[in-house]
Write a structure and sequence with these properties.
three-stranded antiparallel sheet; 31% strand
């Protein structure tokens, strides 16, 4: 008998602990935070559709819908779609189909299935993260520029209107320089990739890629916002900046309804992996509803963008849910659910899973970093005391699969007052559950090489510990 070998129960305990440690470590790696970078549908003309990668359903109401990994876009002839991802713009021409293969903090990878795509990249750092694929062909910007890519089942064409575009295939590589357009195809005779230089494109899609307003650097004159804040470029055209005595530069929208309030004129959509996501009706309605805070000042609402950060973290809606179980009101729309815009320094607690690091990044530009766990005690949100600060609807408005505008389902101020019970502090409320009948499809997000390496290392560690005697 080997007196130095551990007792069987000790060996089993060690193996069990090692396995538990390894599995918990793997789980920590696998449970990534949601991406901080997303895109949005900035414009859609003609017959254009989007398939949400998390739900697998085609939709036509596209304006301001978030764009992330797994989303697919399709246009009929003569239609167009414009996407924005921070400072980067993607234009899809008529008769085209596009798949967002990956969109996260590290990469923007697009698959042009068919048709025409325009790409404008403004930042050198972002250019290194962008890739467009067409079949076996890969196109990578070498720096800022404006590019066009066309594809069908037989070939692909790439044009560099400004800047330089790299091309790669399994057996070939080429640089397309400013003013050049190249055609690429695989020859069935020798199985190799061939190319030839082509004349610049001359169709209705071409002028859209270089329209004058895209060449302008539309930055707010009085406030420096990150170019990577998706939707920030629209604010100058639809509002005014002024100096708040406490919060500095704030932005106010113009030409809004008399009873306008943040998170009122739009709809809620379930977007994986975040859950309930606000989709605003206004053409400028993306950045102010997914970044920053709102304050009621001088008889009107103003958006507070917060401290400058190079890449602000997206949130589905900067609101706190109010109401909750146990409250009732005699309305035809069912038990009500409401929300209030977060004010400066009020923390945002996601309804989805998050790490302490994520909670810090999504909150730090707008105030102190809150504790990891939300408070259990009642909370009196600042904007709840503002007339119209709380918007409330019947719960059915969020449970219906059809798009229901919030403004059409909204409770009046008297009903909201009855639900909330006057001026008492509001107990913490959780976000409503997912819509009834929703069948979510998993979003496949490719892992970075760093995550893959870490995962493999921990697997090796677990195996080594289990094999040791």
């Amino acid at each position: 008998m080997n007196m130095h070998s551990p007792a069987p129960w000790r060996r089993l305990t060690r193996w069990t602990l090692a396995l538990a440690l390894g599995l918990s470590s793997l789980a920590a790696v696998a449970m990534d935070d949601p991406p901080g970078r997303v895109g949005r549908v900035a414009d859609a003309q003609g017959k254009a559709w989007m398939m949400d990668g998390g739900q697998g359903e085609w939709r036509e109401q596209l304006l301001n819908h978030p764009v992330t990994t797994g989303d697919r876009f399709s246009t009929e002839r003569g239609a167009r779609i414009e996407l924005q991802v921070g400072s980067t713009r993607v234009q899809l021409g008529g008769g085209s189909e596009l798949l967002v293969q990956r969109l996260d903090d590290d990469r923007i990878e697009l698959l042009l299935v068919d048709g025409s795509l325009g790409l404008r990249v403004r930042e050198p750092e972002v250019a290194r993260e962008v890739e467009v694929r067409a079949g076996e062909h890969r196109f990578m910007p070498r720096g800022p520029g404006i590019f066009r890519i066309d594809a069908d089942s037989r070939r692909s064409l790439a044009e560099a209107l400004q800047g330089e575009l790299g091309f790669e295939s399994p057996d070939s590589a080429l640089s397309v320089r400013p003013g050049q357009r190249a055609e690429f195809w695989r020859d069935s005779a020798d199985g190799r990739t061939h190319y030839s230089w082509a004349a610049p494109a001359n169709d209705d899609f071409q002028p859209w890629l270089t329209r004058s307003e895209w060449r302008e650097d539309r930055r707010p004159e009085q406030r420096r916002l990150s170019r990577e804040m998706t939707g920030a470029d629209d604010l100058d055209r639809y509002g005014q900046w002024s100096n708040h005595p406490e919060y500095g530069q704030v932005w106010r929208p113009v030409a809004v309804a008399p009873d306008w309030a943040p998170y009122r004129y739009g709809r809620w959509a379930w977007v994986s992996p975040w859950g309930w996501t606000w989709v605003d009706d206004a053409p400028w309605g993306f950045a102010p509803f997914h970044y920053g805070r709102w304050v009621f000042w001088g008889g009107a609402w103003a958006w507070v963008p917060g401290r400058y950060v190079p890449r602000p973290v997206y949130a589905p809606a900067m609101v706190a849910w109010v109401g909750g179980p146990g409250v009732s009101v005699s309305v035809s729309m069912g038990s009500p659910v409401g929300w209030v815009p977060l004010a400066p320094r009020e923390p945002y607690y996601p309804a989805y899973g998050y790490s302490p690091r994520y909670l810090e990044h999504v909150n730090s530009p707008y105030g102190r970093v809150p504790p990891v766990q939300p408070p259990r005690e009642p909370v009196m949100y600042t904007n709840r005391g503002v007339p119209g600060g709380v918007t409330m609807v019947g719960s059915q408005a969020l449970q219906q699969r059809a798009v229901v505008p919030v403004a059409q389902q909204r409770l009046d101020d008297e009903q909201v007052h009855r639900v909330l019970g006057g001026t008492r502090p509001q107990a913490p409320a959780i976000a409503p559950p997912a819509p009834q009948g929703l069948q979510l499809q998993p979003r496949v997000v490719p892992r970075s090489e760093e995550h893959t390496s870490e995962l493999q290392s921990r697997l090796h560690l677990v195996c080594r510990l289990l094999l040791e005697k």
